[in-house]
Every structure is written in structure tokens, then in C-alpha cells.
Amino acid sequence: MTERARAAELLVDARERVYARTSRMFLGLFVGQWLFAIALAAVTSPYAFEGSTRSVHLHLQLAIFLGGAINVLPCALLVARPSWWLTRHCVAAVQMLWSALLIVLTGGRIETHFHVFGSLAFIAFYRDWKLLVTATIVVSIDHLARGVWWPDSVYGIANPEWWRFLEHAAWVTFEDVVLVWGCVRGVSDLRETADRTAEIEHAKGRVVAIVDERTRELRASIEQLARAKKLESIGRLAAGVAHEINTPIQFVGDSIDFVGHAVGELVAAASRRRDAFAGVDDLEFVLAELPRALARAGEGVERVASIVRSMKVFAHPDRTEMAHVDLNAAIESTTVIARNEYRYVADLELQLGELPPVCCHVGEINQVVLNMVVNAAHAIESVVGASGSRGRIVVATFRDRGDACIDITDTGAGIPADLRDKVFDPFFTTKPAGKGTGQGLAMAHAVVVEKHRGSLSFDSELGAGTTFHIRIPVVEQLEVAA
Amino acid sequence: MSERATERATDRPKILFVDDDPQLLAGLRSVLRADRARWDISFAQGSDEALAQLAAARYDAVVSDMRMPGLDGAELLALVKQRVPAARRVILSGSADSDDALRASAIADAVLTKPCPVRELRAANERLLAT
User: Fold this and answer.
1) pLDDT tens-place string over residues B32-88
2) Half-sphere exposure (CA, 13 Å, Cβ side) for A438?
3) Partner residues linked to A50 by β-bridges
4) In what order do the strands lie in the sheet with A465-473?
5) Does the ipTM surpass 0.90?
6) CB A27 within 8 A of CB A79
7) Apex CA A223: angle with CA A220 and CA A228, to 5°?
8) Which residues contact B103 (CB under 8 A, 6 or more apart)?
9) Chains A, B: CB contacts under 8 A, how many?
10) Chain B positions in Cβ-Cβ contact with residue A312 (cut-off 8 Å)
């Protein structure tokens, strides 16, 4: 809602409150006036003898019945719809009739005319100048009509001048001018308050929105920092452990290699003698299994080695030079390399937009893209399985302000909400043992965020797929160029 | 080491492997057995032993670990460059430290990382010894 609309709404509310408050007052006033009129008539107009009978004075009857009658409609309206425009006009008119009735009951005493002026002031409490018009018309008609047919009851004399009603109306108009000015001022005060309230609300809303946004940003950067710290400590650990692990892997691998060759030679040499393996009762199995066992051991060593290799990426920021590269070309060749991973389960589409040369470690970015495409293929494979249907992987590049962006979208299973916090954690994987080391996305995070000062995020919808967003700033290019 | 005493001087290229871990040297010895016909391979456990062997014979190539007690791989190869300028220098390092990598690549003709499959080790030696 705009500030102006809100101010208009607040003004309407404020005026409604004024109407309701004033209406409550009038409800009391009407009942009070009625009781007062009855008491007045009872005191000042006692029983009169009419021959042998006596009857209640006309004034008392007027007070009770006419007073009650004129109260019925406005009181009903005041109770049912206290702030309706018609209620207000009805109140204004009837309040003038009360002035008239009280003037009648006091025999046209000029002092009772003060009730007219007091009533106008009360009506002005509504801060609605139009009510004063209604009231003025009613009081003028009353004075005019009674001045003609029953002048005693209004001026207290039997033969007033014909223009007496005009004199009264003029004084009423004089008060109206003051009161109309008061009503208009009152409304403009309400409007000013409403404007200011809306302004404050709006400013408060803006402040809250800004605080929310800052809080979100802060929280995100705290998370980022925590993740970076985690990766850094893993990196330190990896650096320390890598050397210790790599040496034994080297000699385990070498020894397996040697054993393989040696066993081959020995078996070849021995099999020339008929009884060479006489003591071995499952010779066939042993001979068949030996090369397989060695291959298994070799594969195991290679797996450990690949984990250690990928962990090394976290260890230290690379001090090798970054270079300006055509990311689109790099992505094209990377997706060619990745073809074996996705060709059976998905079609890959490249949507390469225009990119400036980006300053980066291209080998690492290639590795990141490769990991993402392989992940995408695995995500699709988990959905399509062996059904023969195919998924779709889209690799799109585009420039967004100072960033080169790479979006990698798959039509895979999506990432369940409870795992979304963990996907960038090292060693977190949902893939079956042997298929993923849990390093791919952690490594991607280290490369994109820590080394290239970029950002890495994703959107995922369960059952529909996932899009990873890689952003790498291209601004560094300017520094190099300068 | 014993190898030096038992092996005759031949016209086969002489390669010296240096590492502080005897197991690693043993692994290399076993796997490079296949190359015994074309290369004369020796092993030194640590830089001190390596320097002693370098003083006693002329080597065509030295393949050294990076992190060793005493002189490390880069320092050792610096001495090799000074004393036997013709010898090829190779680092075979398990370190992930980029400082190490920088220092190694400054002095060595080739930098290999552990674990290094034997075919790569062979290929590197072949390439360097051919030039």
C-alpha cells in the first residue's frame, strides 16, 4: 500500500472514530433532554382546572409524547449505525427540534433560544460542516412556520414582525461561520495526523525491511565464513595428512605393481613343471583370482589417492598465475570430457552467452564444471534409472553486471530440504560407496568462493531438478589491464 | 649403500633415488626391477647418504623427495646442480604445500607428485635422459 493510500485510510478511520464518539454523546443528550423537558413541564406547567375537571397541562403532554416521538428515529439510528451520514443529519435536525420544543415549553422565553446556539456547537463536534446547514435550515423553517401560526411559542409575544425569523437566522448563521471554520480546521488536523502517522509507518516499514535485509546478508556471510573456516581447517589437515598418506600410497602402489609382475613371471615359470602347484587344491580359483585381487588392490589405492588429491585443493590458495580465458571454450571442452558420464541418461544442451575473458584458474574452473555435470548426470540417473527415458542437462553462461555466470541445470531428483545445508560440506555424499567421495561440491565451493571470490548457490525443487549458479567476478580483469 | 658396491659401472644411465622413507625406496626398487636392463638405479636414504653417493659416482639423474630431515629436496638438488651440472634433477614429492611446489619447480627439471604411477615415473626419466 502506498503512503498516500494509507494516509487516506487512516483519515477515514479517524473521522469514523469522531462520528462514533459524538454519536454516543448525542444518544445521552437526547435521553437527557427528554427527561429534562418532562421535569420542566411538570414543574412549570402544573395541572390546570377546566371547569369541574382537571387535566394534565398540554406542555407536559408535549414533553412526554412529542419529545419521545422525535427521539425515536435518531436514537434508533444512533444505536444501529452511529457513524452513518444520514444518522448525523437526522441528529442535527432533531437536535434543532429539541430547541424548538424547549422554547415552546418555556413559553417562548428568549433565554431558551440559547439552547439553539449550544446545540449547534454540539453538532459541530462531528467536524462535519454540512450538518450545520441541515440544522440551520430546520431551525429557520421552525421559526418561520411558528412565527406565522403560533408566534407566542417562539418569540413569547403574539404579534412579532414578520422578519423576526430572519433576525434569528442571521445570528445562527453568524455562529455557523465560526463553527464551519472550526469543523474544517478539525478535519485538517485529523488529515495532518493521518499523513504523519502514515509517514511514520512507512518509514518504520522501510527501516524494518532494511534491517531484515541486512540481517539476512549478515547471516549469509556468517554462514559463508563458517564454511570457509571449516574448509580451511580441513585444508590444513589435508596438507598435513597428504604428505603422510602419499608416501605409503606410493610404495603400496609400487609394491602391488611389482607383485603383479612377479606373480605373473613365477606362475609362467612354474606352470612348465607338471607338479609345481600339487599342494594347492583350488588351483584354478587361485590362478583366476590372483590378477583380480591385484587389480582390486590397485583400484583401492587409486581411490585413496584421488581423495587425497582432491583434498589438496583446499590446502592453499594457488600461487600459480591466473590467466584470462574464454570460459565458453573451456566449458565446451569440459562437457566433451564429461560426455561419458551423462550420455546414457541425459542430453546436454549448451546455452553459451557472450562473456568477456575471465581471469581465473581455468583448470580448477573446468574441474568445478565437470563435477557439476557429473553430479547432474548422477541426479538424473537416480530418477530415470534403467527406464530408458532421458533427462536434460543445461549449461548456460551469461554476464550479469560484474559477474560471469554459469548455470548448470538438471532434471534430476532435486535436493531434499534437510540436506540443503550440507551439500557443500567435505565428505558429504548421498552417492553409493565408491561412486562419490563427497569432495566434488566442497571442492567447487573452495575454488569458486575462496579462490575466485565468486559465489556458488543453488535452487532445487524436489522431483523437478536442481540448478547450480556459479558466479565469477570479471572485475579483476580491469586491474590487470590497468 | 650395498648397491653401489655390487653394481658394476656400466654405460647404462645411472639414476639415484633419494627418500627418507626406506619403505618407499624398497617399493621403487621392486617396481623398477623391470628396468634393470636399461637403467643403473641406486637408492639413498636421506640427503647425507645421497651426497656421499654423488661424490663417489657420476649420476645422470637424481630423483629426490622434497621433505627430508637435514637438507630437503630443493636444497639437495641445488647442490647437485652445483656439483654435477649435467645430471637431470627430478622432485618426487608428497607435499601439498605450494611453497614446496614453487621451490621444487625452481630447481628441478620435472616435479612429480606422490602417488606417482610407475609408468609416469618411467616416462619422466625416459624424457629427461633422452635430452
Assistant:
1) 988 989 999 999 999 999 999 999 999 999 999 998 999 999 999 999 999 999 999
2) 11
3) A53
4) A346-352, A391-400, A403-410, A465-473, A455-461
5) no
6) yes
7) 125
8) B74
9) 78
10) 96
